[in-house]
C-alpha cells in the first residue's frame, strides 16, 4: 500500500488571514464611532432647519400669521420662526436629543418643550386658528449623503485593515477621527499608516 502526502503552502499564511479577518470583524462590529459621527451630522442638519426655516425636504416653513408676527416683534423677539426663546432649537439640537442606543441613533422627543411636538406635526387650536406643521426633525438629502459617506469610509477602512493584516505582523488598528488607519503593533506602539 502506498501513501500519498499532499502539502500546500498557504499564501498568505492561514494564521495571518485569520488575524486579519478577526481585526476586520472587530473593527466592523464597533459601530459606536460611526454613530457618534452620524449624530454630529444629524445635529448640524437639525441646526440648519432652524437657521433656514425649512423642513428636511427643503420646503420653507409656513410664515407666521401677521398678528403673531407683530406681537412677537413688539415683545422684542425678531429672530427666525420657532426661535422666540431658543429653547426648542437648543433642545432639538442637543446631544441628549440624539441618543445612541446599541447600534441605533434616534431622535428623542421627550426633551423638547411641550410645544415642540405640536410644531413638528401641526395642531388644531381653539383660538387663533390651527398651528401649521413646521417639521424640524428628520434628515435632509445632503445629511443622508454625508451619512452614506461615513459608512463608506468605515468599509474602506475595513478593507485597508484586511489588506494590511493579511500580510501578518499586526496586532490591531487605530482609526483616527479623520478616517486615517494606522497599525497598532503587538508592542502597543503605532506602526505605519495603512490608509
Task: Report what the structure shows.
The protein has 195 residues and is mainly alpha-helical. It has one domain. The protein contains 6 helices and 5 strands; from the N terminus they run ααααββααβββ. The protein has a 3-stranded antiparallel beta sheet, with helices on one face. A two-stranded antiparallel sheet has the order 1-2. β1 and β2 (104-107) form a beta hairpin. α1 (14-29) runs antiparallel to α6 (141-165) and α2 packs antiparallel against α6 (141-165). The radius of gyration is 26 Å and the shape is elongated.
Poorly predicted runs of 5 or more residues:
167-171
Q: Can you give the mean pLDDT?
A: 81
Shape verdict: elongated
Q: Helix and strand string, N-terminal first?
A: HHHHEEHHEEE
How large is the count of helical segments?
Answer: 6
Helix fraction bin = 40-55%
Q: For the terminal residues, how far apart are their CA atoms?
A: 55 Å
Helices and strands: which structural class? mainly alpha
Approximately what portion of the residues adopt beta-strand conformation? 5-15%
What is the CA-based Rg, rounded? 26 Å
Keywords:
single chain; 195 residues; mainly alpha; two-stranded antiparallel sheet; 6 helices; 44% helix; 10% strand; elongated
In short:
This protein has 195 residues and is mainly alpha-helical.
Layout of secondary structure:
Blueprint: H1 14-29, H2 32-52, H3 66-74, H4 87-92, E1 98-101, E2 104-107, H5 114-121, H6 141-165, E3 172-175, E4 181-184, E5 190-193
Antiparallel strand pairs: 1-2, 3-4, 4-5
Amino acid at each position: 500500500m502506498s501513501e500519498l502526502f499532499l502539502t500546500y503552502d498557504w499564501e498568505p499564511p492561514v494564521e495571518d488571514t485569520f488575524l486579519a479577518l478577526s481585526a476586520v470583524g472587530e473593527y466592523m462590529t464597533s459601530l459606536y464611532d460611526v454613530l457618534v459621527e452620524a449624530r454630529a451630522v444629524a445635529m448640524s442638519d437639525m441646526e440648519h432647519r432652524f437657521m433656514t426655516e425649512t423642513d428636511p425636504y427643503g420646503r420653507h416653513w409656513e410664515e407666521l400669521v401677521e398678528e403673531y408676527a407683530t406681537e412677537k416683534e413688539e415683545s422684542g423677539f425678531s429672530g427666525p420662526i420657532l426661535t422666540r426663546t431658543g429653547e426648542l432649537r437648543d433642545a432639538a439640537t442637543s446631544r441628549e436629543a440624539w441618543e445612541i442606543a446599541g447600534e441605533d441613533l434616534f431622535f428623542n422627543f421627550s426633551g423638547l418643550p411641550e410645544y415642540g411636538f405640536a410644531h413638528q406635526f401641526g395642531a388644531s387650536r381653539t383660538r387663533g386658528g390651527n398651528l401649521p406643521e413646521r417639521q424640524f426633525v428628520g434628515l435632509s438629502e445632503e445629511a443622508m449623503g454625508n451619512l452614506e459617506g461615513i459608512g463608506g469610509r468605515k468599509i474602506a477602512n475595513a478593507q485597508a485593515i484586511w489588506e494590511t493584516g493579511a500580510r501578518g505582523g499586526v496586532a490591531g488598528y487605530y482609526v483616527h477621527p479623520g478616517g486615517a488607519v494606522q497599525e497598532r503593533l503587538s508592542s502597543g506602539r503605532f506602526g505605519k499608516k495603512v490608509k
